[in-house]
Amino acid sequence: MADATNWVGSRLLLRRLRDEMAGEGDAQSRLDQVVCIIARDMVAEVCSIYLLRPGDILELFATEGLLKTAVHRTRLRVGEGLVGDVAAHARSLSLDEAQDHPQFAYRPETGEETYHSFLGVPILRGGRVRGVLTIQNQSRRNYTEEETETLETVSMVLAELIAGSELGSPNEFAAADGIALRPLRLEGARLNGGLAMGKAVIHERRTKISQVVAEDPAAELDRFDAAVQRMHRSLDEMMEEIGGQRAGEEHVEVLEAYRMFAEDRGWLSRIREGIRSGLSADASVAKALSDTRARMAQFADPYLRERILDMEDLAYRLLQHLHEGENGEERRLRKGHDAILITRSLGPAELLDYGRGSVRALVLEEGSATAHVSIVARALGIPVVGQVSGLLDKVEPDDDMLVDGDNAVVVIRPGEDVRQSFAEAMEQGARRQAAYTAARDLPAVTRDGVEISLNLNAGLLLDLPSLRETNAAGIGLYRTEILFMVRGELPGVDEQARAYRRVTDQADGKRVVFRTLDAGGDKLLPYMPVAREENPAMGWRAIRMTLDRPFMLRQQLRALIRAVAGRRLDVMFPMVAEVAEFTAARDILDLELARAKARGEPLPEKIAVGCMLEVPSLLFQLPQLMARVDFLAVGSNDLMQFLYASDRGNVAVSERYDILSAGSLRMLHGVVREADKAGVPVSVCGEMAGRPLEAMALAGLGFRSLSMAASSIGPARLMIRSLDARQLSSFINTLLDGTAPSLRSALCNYARDHDLRL
Ligand code: PEP
Ligand code: MG
Fold first, then answer.
1. pLDDT at 529 exceeding the cut of 80
2. What spacing in Å lies between the alpha carbon of 710 and ligand 1's midpoint?
3. Which of 40, 343, 510, 735 has the smallest number of Cβ neighbours within 10 A?
């Protein structure tokens, strides 16, 4: 950390840079001066600025000390050489002997061979690397931490100055590729389904920093503290508005967690430290954000990375409050604006700034299904497509756009024919929806009188209204881990009990099957650091984790018993591989029931304990398992990936094997037979149950209970009502003896020939 003398020193340097950049002359001559000032101040023989050009090329833009003829000639790819390494990792690099570094790339035109020590720092802006700033010395010297920190601060100021309007077009320095104004189709990840048409609104965050250096740090600190107070007040107002309407729902809780984050002292004190070192409050907020963003970008853990989104939202909100008169209000779009909101990432509160009813869809360069903004968007019924790479480089404000949240596809500037067919698809979707709504109260019974129970998969309170909308029989799979994933710490018994209670309250007496925590694998809990695993899907997850940390399972089961108090309890365990694991988990439930009884707490009226069938080893223990379980749920997503040794998340192999093959259908048929023999109810709750053709096959194999996403219930109901179960069973039996790797087309033909509604 810089001491008082360094603050004064760096303040002077920052001021000189600001004055130089605001001065006369063209951009190039000002940059030439800037490198001289930095070199002199840092007592370096060389100071160079490399800026990022289109195609991930770093171009030498200005240098003091290297040969001037290399300017605009020396170019390195990101990742190439030391400069490329700094850019690739968004990380400073300090070396006393540059040429010993394996990444060193010799560029004879620069004449740099006489310089031994090297210090390079990334030029970051808005969380992106814009270039690299370096100093070099002939002597072999180790740059101190203070020197690195000073150069990082200088580079941050430089980034703002380069982007600032006083230099005219930023393109003078780092021109982006010309945007070809032709239709483009981009793919991403489905974060919330639905279709939307509208015009692109690029979500702009206030990043233009009018003043980088503060003349009077004490006065600047006061200005900052006043802005923090204003921000807290306006967040309280937002919370009141939202919380008053729909208290207790997930998106409200997400916003509450966000409000608490706004109070975080560590974050605020880092910004204050920056102000004390001479930065303006704006610049210090931007620097704190940029530093954290660049650091977090190194982590693969999606949940850690998501934390940064809340911080970004807050940082930009704080920047607005630093400039009085600018607040969220001005974001509000008029109703009927039909905005397709385009941005790299978005905080949950930022989406609300736009007001209700004007944003038709949200498209993000980043984002994940559990990101806080996705949860809020789901509550508002806004389709969201995330992880669309290069999005911001390709969309212009007011571009016409089509968003297909169901298939995670975005079309920019569609041609008239594409737009027409999309509009037709939207109309057709609305008609189909109307047909599902009309059939909502009809029983899911086949033509020959076989009833198939259609259930929902859920994991958020927000999913609960679908129970009534779709008239599903109940919730066949409630994924409790989502509650654990959106929290900053392990939820306690009371908090869990309240959450589960709300689920059963809203289920209107319908059955809810709670699955105990299925964390680990790709579902990491931010507060439970786990060792890096070579194969996380086959690692320390689900029941393995909770049996090894029995307090977690005990707390969860205690919360469930408390939540259902007097009602029925349906609970099942994920990823069981051995009957003994199921027995151990059931014993823990018995312990908790005994505890509740001893304390005179109300017990569940009825208890059913189930096991998920997701690990193939259980297929060879079925009779023993059936003797101990009250019901069985086939998790076909995991079962399929382990059966075929084919990673469900790896697109190169996830589609390689068809679950509608003779082999896997024989396996599933065997499971139904064993369950029927033992009189144990069995359901399927993996994705296959929600696809009409697969659901048809499952009904033909003898499954009488399916659990799926809300959007699949309507299609499944119509399909079942058009089916003759016995006829289909005999047809499927004729296929099971074969070796076909896919029975898809045979089943499709059957459906077509028998007029089934798929
Ligand atoms: C499954 O594996 O099929 C399942 C339902 O569990 P999840 O998708 O939550 O792993
Ligand atoms: Mg699973």
1. no
2. 16
3. 40
- Tokens describing residue 21: 């950049």
Higher pLDDT, residue 375 or 145: 145
Is pLDDT of 328 > 50?
no
Q: What is the pLDDT of residue 85?
A: 92
- Structure-token match 């037709």, residue found: 424
Chain-centroid distance, C-alpha 758:
32
Instruction: Please tell me the distance from the alpha carbon of residue 14 to that of residue 159, in angstroms, as a whole number.
Output: 12
**Per-residue model confidence (pLDDT) at position 303:** 53
Q: Name the one residue in this structure whose structure tokens are 């259908």.
A: 665
pLDDT reported for residue 596? 97
Q: What is the location of CATH 3.20.20.60 in the chain? A: 445-753
Question: Ligand 1, residues 611, 614, 644: which to mutate, most atoms within 8 A of Cβ?
Answer: 614
Q: Which helix (H) or strand (E) holds 494?
A: helix 493-506
Q: What was the pLDDT predicted at 694? A: 97
- For domain 445-753, the CATH class is alpha beta
Q: What is the pLDDT of residue 314?
A: 81
User: Which candidate, 674, 680, 545, places its Cα nearest to that of 621?
Assistant: 674
- Ligand 2 centroid – CA 635 distance (Å): 5
- Start-end of CATH 3.50.30.10 domains in the chain: 187-410
Task: Give start and end residues of each alpha helix (H) in 340-448.
Answer: 348-353, 372-380, 391-394, 416-439
Q: Is 559 within 8 Å of 497 (Cβ atoms)?
A: yes
Q: What is the 3-state secondary structure (H, E, C) of 457-489?
A: EECCHHHCHHHHHHCCCEEEEEECHHHHHCCCC
Q: Which residues does ligand 1 sit against, CB inside 6 Å? A: 477, 479, 518, 614, 635-638, 685-686
- In this structure, which amino acid lies at residue 22? A
Ligand 1 site-directed mutation target among 479, 484, 524, 646, most atoms within 8 Å of CB? 479
3-state secondary structure 41-92: HCCCCEEEEEEEECCCEEEEEEEECCCHHHCCCCEEECCCHHHHHHHHHCCC
Say what the pLDDT of residue 166 is: 42
Name the residue of 457, 515, 518, 545 whose CB sits within 8 Å of the most ligand 1 atoms, as the mutation to test its pocket: 518
- Nearest-5° angle of CA 327, CA 332, CA 333? 150
CATH T-level assignment (fold) for domain 2-180 = Beta-Lactamase (3.30.450)
Q: Which atom of ligand 1 is nearest to the CA of 637?
A: 3
**By the 8 A CB rule, do 686 and 635 touch?**
yes
639 CA to centre of ligand 1 in angstroms: 9
CATH number of 187-410: 3.50.30.10
Across 275-304, average pLDDT: 75
Q: Is 709 exposed, middle or buried (0-12, 13-18, 19+ CB in 10 A)?
A: middle
At residue 687, the pLDDT reads: 87
Handedness of CA 144, 147, 153, 154 (dihedral sign): negative
DSSP 138: S
Q: What are phi and psi of 65, to 5 degrees?
A: 110, -40
Kind of pairing between the strands at 117-125 and 93-95 = antiparallel
687 contacts 654 by C-beta, under 8 angstroms: no
Angle at 606 between CA 605 and CA 612, to 5 degrees: 140
Which atom in ligand 1 lies closest to the alpha carbon of residue 635?
A: 3
Ranges for all domains in the chain classified under CATH 3.30.450.40: 2-180
For residue 641, the ligand closest to its alpha carbon is: 1
pLDDT at 164: 61
Whole-number mean pLDDT of the chain?
Answer: 85
For residue 312, the model assigns a pLDDT of 76
